[in-house]
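Entry type: protein chain
Record version: 2
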Amino acid sequence: MEESAKTSLTAVDRIADGDGLQVLKAAIPYLPQTAQKPFSVYVKAMEVHNLLSYYNNPVHACSAPDTEPDAMLQDIRAYCTDAQRQSLDQTLNLINALKLYQEIQKIS
């Protein structure tokens, strides 16, 4: 999968994709009608397997991503409508203003 297509997936979808289940998903509409349903279920089962394997691995289970609220909002922003993005942008601007205010308070 192209890196740009891979980055358009959410973090959980990238984990579930494993070693390229998106390629298999893209092929499903071209399979015979009778094979599409079982193949789709198989791909979903592999996604669940990949997720369970990832979260059962102690190294991954203990690793915490950036826990800043603005980082989470930035990630969510890519999947929002225009109206939702505007609201998130206002929230992000407020968070950034508060961070700046806190930095100024530290200096004073």
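Comment: Residues 69-107 form one domain.
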